[in-house]
Write a structure and sequence with these properties.
CATH architecture of chain C: 2-Layer Sandwich
Oligomer: heterotrimer
CATH class of chain C: Alpha Beta
Number of helices of chain A: 27
Keywords (chain B): Membrane, Transmembrane, Transmembrane helix
Distance between the termini of chain A: 21 Å
Number of strands of chain A: 35
Structural class of chain A: alpha/beta
CATH architecture of the domain at 161-430 in chain A: 3-Layer(aba) Sandwich
Number of strands of chain C: 11
CATH class of the domain at 161-430 in chain A: Alpha Beta
Strand order of the largest sheet of chain A: 5-4-25-24-23-6-7
Pfam family, one (chain B): DmsC
Helix content of chain C: 10-25%
CATH superfamily of the domain at 161-430 in chain A: Dimethylsulfoxide Reductase, domain 2
Largest sheet of chain A: 7 strands, mixed
GO molecular function (chain B): dimethyl sulfoxide reductase activity
Radius of gyration of chain A: 28 Å
Structural class of chain C: alpha+beta
Number of domains of chain C: 1
GO cellular component, one term (chain B): plasma membrane
Strand content of chain C: 15-25%
Radius of gyration of chain C: 24 Å
CATH topology of the domain at 161-430 in chain A: Dimethylsulfoxide Reductase, domain 2
Strand order of the largest sheet of chain C: 10-1-11
Chains: A alpha/beta (969), B mainly alpha (312), C alpha+beta (231)
Shape of chain C: elongated
InterPro entries (chain B): DmsC
Chain lengths: 969, 312, 231
């Protein structure tokens, strides 16, 4: 056979490295470009996140770039047309920005909180948060409140780091991995890479999820748990560990507050708080001295268990005593939890003991020298090779915060926190428990906020409420409704703004958030709210600005549309000030830079924000002489310093680009990142890779880099005093702000607890569970990211219609046939959906893929697209408020009462077969119109970067040779 | 398998044509039956070649890239489709020489015509066999992967040819008991073979979803094909008319394809006018058309196992 | 050489990365473009060389979900090649890759009928059959770094469930995996001798628990005696 032809004209091709944005995983990509067209996107094998691999979404980047839904130019709602009608007229960027900055200027001069600015799936909260802070409005948050704030909060209030962006299993060394409530998304590639390593190394993989698809498919053991009961399952395993005395005694004594003493004076102020000396240091009982000593000292021998009487006469118990008393109770025995969780007692007990075996009988010992926070040198690190990862299935319940804490409790009991084989932190984490930032509480005209809008309350004093205890933020975050809502409560913004509760706003900006569709609860009614007018005929949300790259459902509700670029067309940072791309053993951050020239009149939202900040003369964006400090986003990233030497990007700092983590601005920083394949990595020496809550070298580095504010050791909080302070406030025993309404008192008393509790998801306490017998949850397909990928011609071929999946045997017992149409009804409404029967589903659960269902016409899809005609959204069934019972709780958010995390998965439903003629999904809505500049979506696609070079078979070969094997015979 | 109309019409008409041609040559050259007029001979010949040519032209109908159709002769060595094409084309010069001799010389065509006719008849049978083997050689479709497939193709061609022969003869007032008898016998053999075939395919054998997926110790069910809509594979292999339809059609095949024409010829034998042979031809072509549709529709390609079928 | 893939069903999570990577590479590859029909309309479809199918083995609660990516198996006994009337389908003698000469195919679909694994798809627009080329336009491209001279599906697989190599070389990774993990073939009874081989799910090691069970279970906090552990 002749030599192969030259298939690719490499001379015409250019290789560029940037960061993927087909989901929030932030993989490094290597893009081959040819004539401003993408030839090939592959994973960057040097990149810390994906190490060369790339998921289905990342591989379909070409088709996002080709999307017919791309917005083409700035637009305003056509004068005289109604909001939501989708009638737009193009305007120039100058006009768009003039209009917006004029409006914002007035707001900022008068009452800055009349601007609410909420962002969706962006990865630039450091910038948007800074922008809001400088504007002076605390009405800002990203989507974390309806995403996974419980994961973050659960960890940051316990171990100082959490899952995903905060920490990773030590995939190289772990021997046992428990995956909790992880649908197929975050963190996409790292989990897949890790699970394979685990299995290759002979480790065991246990998956806890009511559904067995995705990662659970390859689990060695599947725990098909009932939704919302994971916390009880975790605490039941904790019960087993305690019963068998399987916990890491040394670890608890050294690194946690297990030995601290808790005041036991029920009904009195101060009950349940840690016993402290006059300097505020926690006291412990020293076993040799047989006396109370400062528990922050080392080389003492504190009692782990015990009840004592404090010098002031108050009875105290160690945290561990309280913990053991609670969880040794039969209430938590596997036999007693089995009915609620659906997990057989034998399995609960065995899994707990398997973990104990791996942690304590297969302990890893590494010869690594390190120095603890007290300057003591050690020559070994010990690893408890049990690791965990948890995500939205845990967090999207109203008991999610407590459940997250319960999961961390298992890790802590096993001593598998930031140790070899366990759960490792990723810089800038761990942080002190909790991080020291408090949410801003005051807005004043033309004045930046004193602190960022979002922070970490530790006591009722930190709430963002007025003197009467009413919420100050439009989303009611940090109010008595949800005191520790660290990520805000974006899912409440539209409802509250339309009600004018706590007050009306003027302008609402949504960036990259589909808040009229799959990112909102109660979709149909929220669509009405967005259009709602007051008695004067004015819109209740007077001005709605949407920035997005694509014609999403939300765009049609905008008064002003600012078209964003795609991820291949802009500069961007995945900043160390945010949640960067670090690995456990390396601090890392990264950038995007334009790979392609936009073919439309679009601008990156980053540029628009920097432009607006300059025009509005935000102090941080303005020189002393009143002129603009930053020419554009690139300039801003290079020259902005949060504190001396600390900027958005931590690599290649200093005039010469040789300083890392901290250093002067480097005018060539972008070039340095681009040259280094779009990312920066600072490798930690082995001595700084473990026990970082008490690792002196590491904490010194962390302080130098601005990751932590002090080098004090981080005490892991089994016992959460923060929780107790709010509980005391509910009980009327707190010396500080206390709620006045009974419903708030009840919620604080019931749902706040210094040790994790399990309670029934709230929705289930306010409906007739016999009427709505099924749990209903959403899972995420691995090949789609929320609503984004129905516009993707390749990915939608994999799935353009979601089904309601249910357990086959259960369905058969109800006479429900495969592929039949049924009505699904909750307390909030009903929808018509098509059923698919499967084995891998807990019998009392039904589920579907999230965000496949689309509004007709949106995302460049044709009217007959499967997504709109047969696909559906579960969102219609989920209320943003708790089920109505005619009590004051009716108006409280359907969220975790601790963190305000949207309780998407608390939903319960009933199923009834549809009539034979009832086909297709319901409800249906008006068609989303195409926007100016969009062309008709094609009937056929034949994407190629260049004409193919064919391989031709020689004619003699044709005539003489069949398949090899046959010729041999 | 998706029953492509072009392929059904092709195999039915060309099959009848080859069958008619073979019988024509045998009856003509061996002098079986009543002597044929020049006109009748030409009519048989034109009908046969017409049916064959019509069928072959239709056969290119399902090609997605007709400009490369000429290349189908290239792989005679291994491909039955290539062989069919080669034999079908090779048939023509001999058939045309035979036809030319008939045109020029009438019934007494001389040795050249006789040899050409004989070779053409043999090539006709080989072509029918090759057509059958196109399907018969496929291990992926158990309903086809049997010697019964080429046997059926040959016998159905011959039987429809026999019916056509009798019908044409009747048009010339030349039909006799011999014609009717031959048609009945051929129909009977074809019907028996088809009956055996239907019985044979009703017994499930071969790969299952278990061997396809490699999981042999438990029930395997399809969870998701990995694509929302149909693909080339589901279009091509996913056709399933359902057992009710196929059962009814099978009865219709026997009724229209074999029983009605046989009864018609039985009536002719017992004195009915020979002209009703045309009824038999129409009936048998419809019946065999349905048989051919079923041949495809009932064929279950093993790829279906990957789309959820438990067996083929 | 006998080039082909090993696919690990123990780690394949069914994410479709390989399928889309394949689509992406090959739409601009030697047999591209790969047409998509109704890309934004009802029932979108198109030409793909690699499709991931999902199955459930066993009844609830003893069910396991299995993901099976499937593309051309580059069979040793490649009937698709033998049945092809035009000679467009061929198996390269030097490495066993089965290819379709796009300029010779007449689009009769016969090769697809002969393929038990659904590896071949007709491009209706081009009128020719297309299929996995094992990225013949990558694996021999010396302009690519050596580690990238692999099929796009293998490079991209996040679960490292795909391996590419020479099955004739007993020392190759693919041969070793097949030996060590007991590789299996789909529908071996048909006799196509597919080269691509699947690794069955691993059997989990049993984890003992008797060594962490207490002889006497703790019933109250008072059962514990404090240990002298220095902080």
């Amino acid at each position: 056979m002749s030599a192969l032809p030259e298939f690719e004209d490499h001379g015409k091709q250019e290789i560029k490295y940037t960061t993927c944005y087909m989901c929030a995983c932030r993989c490094g990509i290597k893009v081959t470009v040819e004539d401003n067209k993408v030839r090939y996107i592959q994973g960057n094998r040097h990149h810390p996140i994906n190490k060369g691999v790339l998921c289905a979404k990342g591989n379909a980047g070409i088709m996002k770039q080709q999307s017919p839904a791309r917005l083409h130019q700035p637009m305003r709602r056509k004068p005289g047309t109604e909001r939501g009608a989708g009638e737009f007229e193009p305007i120039s960027w100058d006009e768009a920005i003039d209009t917006l900055s004029e409006r914002l200027k007035k707001i900022r001069e008068t009452d800055p909180r009349k601007l609410a600015f909420f962002t969706g799936r962006d990865q630039m909260q450091a910038l948007t948060g800074l922008w809001a802070t400088q504007f002076g409005t605390y009405n800002w948050a990203a989507h974390g409140g309806f995403c996974s704030v419980n994961m973050a909060a659960g960890g940051l209030y316990t171990t100082g780091f959490a899952f995903w962006e905060f920490g990773d299993p030590d995939w190289d060394r772990t021997k046992y991995h428990m995956l909790w409530g992880v649908a197929e998304d975050h963190a996409s590639n790292p989990i897949k890479i890790g699970l394979e390593k685990l299995k290759r190394n002979g480790g065991k993989f246990v998956a806890i999820n009511p559904v067995r698809t995705g990662y659970q498919a390859i689990a060695d053991e599947w725990v098909g748990i009932k939704p919302g009961t994971d916390g009880l399952f975790a605490l039941s395993m904790l019960h087993v560990l305690l019963k068998n005395s399987q916990f890491d005694w040394d670890f608890l004594v050294r690194y946690t507050n297990a030995t601290q003493l808790v005041v036991q004076t029920p009904g009195q102020q101060g009950d349940g708080l840690i016993l402290r000396d006059d300097n505020g240091n926690p006291l412990v009982w020293e076993l040799e001295k047989e006396d109370f000593v400062d528990g922050s000292q080392v080389d003492i021998k504190p009692a782990l268990f015990g009840e004592y009487t404090a010098p002031d006469g108050r009875p105290v118990k160690t945290v561990m005593t309280l913990l053991a008393e609670r969880y040794l109770d039969d209430e938590y025995s596997p036999e007693n939890t089995a009915e609620i969780t659906g997990v057989p007692a034998e399995q609960t007990e065995r899994l707990a003991l398997e973990m104990a075996h791996v942690a304590f009988k297969e302990t890893i010992e590494l010869d690594i020298e390190w120095t603890d926070s007290w300057g003591r040198k050690h020559d070994k690190v010990f690893g408890r090779p049990v690791s965990m990862h948890a995500m939205r299935g845990i967090s999207a319940h109203s008991n999610g915060f407590q459940t997250c804490r319960a999961i961390h409790f298992l890790q802590i009991m096993l001593g598998s926190v930031d140790c070899p084989g366990g759960h490792l932190a990723k810089p800038p984490y761990p942080k002190h428990v909790p991080p020291g930032i408090k949410p801003a509480k005051e807005c004043a005209p033309n004045t930046p906020l004193k602190s960022p809008p979002l922070g970490f309350p530790t006591a009722p004093e930190d709430l963002v409420i007025d003197d009467d205890g009413n919420p100050l933020r439009i989303d009611k975050a940090y109010s008595w409704d949800a005191p520790i809502s660290n990520h805000g409560m974006m899912h409440m913004v539209v409802t509250n703004a339309v009600k004018g509760d706590p007050y009306p706003i003027d302008t609402l900006i949504f960036f990259m958030a589909n808040m009229s569709w799959n990112s909102t609860m109660n979709t149909a009614e929220v669509m009405d709210m967005l259009r709602a007018k007051d008695e004067n005929g004015e819109y209740k949300i007077p001005y709605l600005v949407v920035s997005d790259a694509f014609n999403s459902e939300m765009v049609s509700f905008a008064d002003l549309v600012l078209p964003d670029t795609t991820y291949l067309e802009r500069y961007d940072t995945i900043s160390m000030l945010d949640r960067p791309i670090s690995e456990p053993a390396a601090a890392a951050d990264s950038i995007r830079h334009p790979i392609l020239e936009p073919d439309r009149d679009v601008r990156p939202w980053q540029e628009v924000m920097v432009e607006l900040a300059g025009r509005l003369k935000f102090p941080a964006f303005t020189k002393d002489d009143g002129s603009r400090k930053f020419a554009d986003y690139k300039d801003f990233i290079v020259n902005f310093e949060k504190e001396p030497g600390i900027g958005f990007l931590s690599g290649y700092r200093g005039k010469d680009g040789q300083s890392h983590l901290r250093g002067e601005p480097n005018p060539k920083q972008w070039e340095a990142y681009i040259e280094n394949q779009g990312f920066f990595m600072y490798h930690l020496p082995e001595s700084q890779q473990f026990y970082r809550y008490a690792n002196q070298e590491y904490l010194e580095l962390a302080k130098h880099a601005g990751w932590v504010g002090k080098t004090d050791p981080i005490t892991i909080e089994l016992y959460s005093e923060t929780q107790q302070r709010f509980k005391l406030a509910g009980q009327g025993l707190y010396d500080g702000p206390q709620p006045t309404k009974q419903e708030h008192k009840d919620r604080l008393t019931e749902f706040f607890d210094p040790l994790p509790i399990w309670h029934k998801p709230l929705e289930q306490t306010r409906i007739d569970e016999d009427e709505y017998p099924f749990y209903a949850v959403n899972q995420r397909p691995m090949f789609m990211y929320h609503s984004w990928d129905s516009q993707n011609a390749w990915l939608r071929q994999i799935c353009a219609q979601n089904y309601l999946y249910m357990n086959r045997q259960k369905a058969e017992s109800m006479g429900i046939e495969d592929l039949s149409w049924v009505w699904l009804e909750s307390h909030n409404g009903k929808i018509r959906v098509q059923v698919k029967l499967i084995e891998g589903c807990e019998p009392n659960t039904v589920w579907t893929w999230n965000a496949i269902g689309k509004q007709k016409g949106a995302w460049g899809l044709k009217d007959d697209a499967n997504e709109s005609q047969k696909g559906f959204l579960m969102n219609h069934l989920i209320s943003e408020l708790l089920p109505k019972k005619g009590d004051p709780v009716d108006d409280i958010t359907n969220s975790d009462p601790v963190t305000g995390q949207a309780a998407w998965y608390d939903l319960k439903v009933k199923i009834t077969p549809a009539e034979p003629e009832e086909r297709g999904s319901w409800p249906q809505f008006d068609k989303v119109k195409a926007t100016p500049g969009m062309s008709e979506s094609p009937d056929q696609l034949r994407y190629h970067a260049h004409k193919p070079v064919h391989l031709n078979r020689d004619i003699r070969d044709v005539l003489t040779r069949g398949s090899l094997d046959d010729d041999k015979n | 398998m998706h029953p492509a109309l072009s392929v059904i019409l092709f195999t039915v008409t060309s099959g009848a044509g080859y069958g008619l041609f073979v019988l024509l040559v045998i009856f003509h050259l061996a002098g079986i039956g009543p002597a044929m007029s020049h006109g009748e001979l030409i009519a048989h010949g034109v009908a046969a070649l017409g049916l064959i040519t019509f069928g072959l032209l239709l056969s290119t109908g399902h090609l997605a890239n007709k400009k490369n159709a000429w290349r189908s002769f290239m792989r005679f060595k291994t491909s039955w489709l290539s062989r069919e094409a080669v034999f079908a084309v090779l048939f023509y010069p001999f058939a045309l020489v035979y036809g030319l001799c008939v045109l020029l010389f009438g019934p007494e065509i001389g040795p050249l015509g006789m040899v050409a006719g004989l070779v053409a008849a043999i090539l006709a049978v080989i072509t029918l066999f090759s057509t059958g083997m196109i399907y018969g050689c496929l291990k992926t479709i158990r309903q086809w992967n049997t010697a019964l497939t080429p046997a059926n193709y040959i016998m159905l061609g011959v039987a429809t040819g026999a019916v056509a022969y009798a019908a044409i003869a009747s048009a010339f007032g030349n039909a006799t008991a011999m014609h009717a008898g031959v048609a009945i016998v051929m129909l009977l053999i074809a019907a028996v073979l088809k009956g055996i075939y239907y019985f044979w395919i009703s017994r499930v054998t071969g790969p299952t979803i278990n061997t396809a997926t490699t999981f042999n110790r438990a029930t395997v069910r399809l969870l998701d094909t990995g694509h929302t809509a149909g693909t080339f594979l589901t279009d091509e292999f996913g056709y399933d008319p359902g057992k009710n339809t196929t059962d009814i059609l099978k009865m219709a095949v026997f009724l229209l394809g074999f029983i009605v024409p046989a009864l018609v010829f039985a009536a002719v034998l017992t004195g009915a006018p020979a002209a009703i042979g045309w009824l038999a031809l129409v009936s048998t072509l419809i019946g065999v058309g349905m048989e051919r549709w079923l041949f495809f529709a009932e064929a279950k390609h093993v790829v279906r196992l990957y789309h959820g079928a438990q067996h083929t | 050489m006998r080039l082909g893939l090993v696919i690990d069903m123990d780690t394949c999570v069914g994410c479709h990365a390989c399928a889309v990577a394949c689509k992406q590479w090959n739409t601009s590859g030697t047999t591209g473009p790969l047409t998509d029909y109704q890309p934004y309309g009802e029932d979108p479809s198109g030409v793909w060389f690699n499709r991931i199918r999902h199955y459930e083995v066993g009844d609830y609660p003893n069910n396991k979900t299995v993901n099976i990516p499937m593309s051309c198996m580059h069979c040793e006994h490649a009937d698709c090649v033998n049945v092809c009337p035009t000679g467009a389908s061929y198996k390269r003698p030097e490495d066993g890759i089965v290819l379709v000469d796009q300029d010779k195919c007449m689009g009769c679909n016969y090769c697809a009928w002969a393929c038990p694994y659904g590896a071949r798809e007709l491009d209706r627009e081009d009128g020719v059959m297309k299929k996995c080329t094992l990225c013949v336009d990558r694996i021999y491209d010396e302009a690519l770094p050596p580690e990238e001279r692999q099929p796009a599906c293998v490079i991209t697989c996040p679960a490292h469930a795909r391996f590419f190599g020479d099955f004739d070389d007993e020392e190759s990774e693919v041969s070793r995996l097949v030996r060590e993990r007991g590789g299996v073939k789909q529908m071996p009874e048909l006799g196509y001798k597919p080269v691509n081989t699947y690794l069955p799910p691993r059997v989990t090691r049993p984890i003992p628990t008797d060594d962490v069970r207490a002889n006497t279970l703790i019933s109250s906090v008072k059962d514990w005696v404090n240990k002298m552990v220095a902080r």
